[in-house]
Amino acid sequence: MTTAELRGAWALILGASSGFGAATARALARKGVNIFGVHLDRKATLPQVEALVEELQGLGVRVRYFNVNAADAEKRAEVLEAMGQEMDDGRRVRVLLHSLAFGALRPFVGEGAVTQAQMEMTLDVMAHSLVYWTQDLVARGYFEENARIFAMTSSGGRRVWAHYGAVSAAKAALESHVRQLALELAPRRITVNAIRAGVTDTPALRKIPGHDRMVEVARSRNPMGRLTEPEDVAEALALLAEPASYWITGNVIGVDGGEDITG
Fold first, then answer.
1. Does 57 map to a domain?
2. What is the DSSP letter of 197?
3. Does a structural domain hold residue 78?
4. Domain containing 204 — which CATH number?
5. DSSP alpha helices (H): ranges in the chain?
6. Torsion over CA of 14, 20, 22 and 26, rounded to 10 degrees?
7. Distance between CA 263 and CA 258 in Å, rounded?
């Protein structure tokens, strides 16, 4: 299989309206990959999403975005049903990217401590939903042979930061899910990897208390002399979507310009 044969396949991006998801949509669309995008945006940010969809369509690919909660089982079923109707030419999902960033940023103890509901929501959205989407895509036969599954993790999966505990737990769980899915999907020739991006100035990062200090530290210690950008990660994902990456699975792959080696 060659790069040209990616053209006409589909990517399903969970968290597709900004940050890593939007950048990856652009990178894959440039390769001729059609885009399904799942996002959750309010009225104020919808014009940005509409502009992104128009930009992707301008690259000559088919695009269908769904403004729904990706962690809602009923909405997931509705999206999958619509996807089945859209994929009318025999091509299926080549790439699934899980890039959902919505969780509770609270301490574990003391004033404002995270609640059970908040902890469970964070784990469900940022980790467990990868399993549920994968289950349904497999059950419906929506994956192409030699498909790729990617999940966005961070160094927070094994490091601590104030108020980051629930999200850190979710990232650790996500990496565990990646390993298990890699094992179970190997006979189907579907690879599964986590992508550990360096500190990146995204809307999700700006919600973390003390993120300005996080940015300062990351920039000072990155051998490349700058922060990771969404496009850095998107280009790596587009490369890993190529057929030649078929033997890479079950890994946490760093895309950070060497940031992690100096920590």
1. yes
2. E
3. yes
4. 3.40.50.720
5. 19-29, 46-57, 73-86, 116-123, 129-139, 165-185, 203-206, 211-221, 230-240
6. -120
7. 10
Domains: count for the chain = 1
Query: In sequence order, which residues have a C-beta less than 8 Å from that of residue 107 and are 6 or more positions away?
Result: 113, 114, 162, 163, 165
CB 163 within 8 A of CB 107: yes
CB 25 within 8 A of CB 56: yes
Structural domain includes residue 29 = yes
- The gap between the terminal CA atoms of the chain, to the nearest Å, is 39
The band of 210, judged by pLDDT with boundaries at 50, 70 and 90, is low
- Give the separation between CA 165 and CA 162, rounded to whole angstroms: 7
CB neighbours (10 Å) of residue 245?
A: 14
Helix (H) or strand (E) holding 14, with range, is strand 10-14
- Which are the contacts of 84, defined by CB distance < 8 A and separation ≥ 6? 140, 142
The whole domain housing 126 covers 3-256
pLDDT tens-place string over residues 111-148: 999 999 999 999 999 999 999 999 999 999 999 999 99
At 36, give phi and psi (nearest 5°): -100, 130
How is residue 79 written in tokens?
């999206």
Tell me 58's DSSP state. T
Residue with token string 């619509």: 82
In a domain, 261, yes or no: no
